[in-house]
Amino acid sequence: MRFTKALTHLSLFVFLCTKLSCASIQQTPLSKTINKTSVHQAMKKVTDWQMARFNNKTYLFEGYDKGAHMAPTDESSHPQGWVYASFYVGMARMAELESSMGNDKYSEQLLDIAKHRKYLFAPRIYNADDYAIGQLYLDLYKKYPNEDMLTPLKVIFEIILQTPSTTTLTYEDVTQTSVHDGKLLQDEFGNRKFQLRPCKNRWCWADALFMGPPVWINLSKVTGDKRYLEFADKELWETVNLLWDDKDHLFFRDSRFFDKREANSEKVIWARGVGWVAAGLARILEHFPKEHPSRAKYEDIFRKMMTRLAQAQQSDGLWRPSVLDPETQPFKETSGTGLMAFAFASGINQGILDKKTFMPVVTRAWSALVDAVQPNGKLGRVQQIGDSPDNVSAEDTQIYATGAFLLTGSELYKLAK
């Protein structure tokens, strides 16, 4: 009798699982414990929620409202622009991890996306936002070596090497009208209009240090062409000399923020802006030659910045949108936190940061990031596209934050027991 009842209960469970796709099981809360199983489960859940919103016919993420800057004609939503690129940086790490487990599903999907885009870029040749997607092609090249993947990137970088931009690094929007018809001049491509910002032909804003130099330095490593490395090294230090604050050991977002102050009189240091730099430097150091004369300078500035950021972490494990004045925008935020958490974990894995000192920072951050993952796998509390501290809601999400989450998870998987 007991056996019959147990069998009946089991049959009912299997029936419900089949009908409901085991939804109740999928809603099981994620573990915050840092071990390989729990970290991988969190990455998988967030990945699958995100990729369910990718349209395999249009090759676009869909289902975002206009306020999320994912409208088809918005500058930032270009499918080969920085928003997609920063997601693919993290997604490629997830794909590599899955491939090591015998599952090439994600790698094949990324390869299909790259082939569909013909390994090309967004329209502005000199703008790091528009060639950041080159990292995806470099990551795929490791698994599927095909010179066609790198040809467009080499062509673009050769143009930059032969005719480098000499524009000032002062950040400003430029309004120009045509001398012929008096109409406003704007860059236009594919029904998208791009604001004219001349300094973006170089790395004049903090985000660019995540978008640009890692691609140049990784391409140098892959091809053996040292010109890419030397160009990136020279240009990057021009940006560092401009945006680095030697007193607080942090980076301004761009030159507009030098004299701005928060309500508590502290400098305006945007969490995601400095997060882009932290994650960018971590990625640079992964491929930067250890014997290069500049290597020690990179490690020094990285350690100083990460030490200062550790001091600014809030008790809940997150960083607020304004790093030095958490009260001015007291919102929990995950994109900046994800980028910083990745940088800490990567720094530990690379032996640049002391594990005993910084692992507690990573542990708190990961716990907070997992807390922000909703039961269905959506990563919330993401500040929307912008350039300064702003408000955030629990429902806000964006694919660049998912990318940062996957970057962090990939490093924690290496650290986990």
From TrEMBL:
Q: Name one GO molecular function term.
A: hydrolase activity
One Pfam family named in its UniProt record: Glyco_hydro_88
- Keyword Cell cycle present in the record's keywords: the answer is no
- Keywords in UniProt for this one? Hydrolase
Say if the entry is tagged with keyword Hydrolase: yes
Q: Which domain of life is it from?
A: Bacteria
What this protein is called in its record is: Glycoside hydrolase family 88 protein
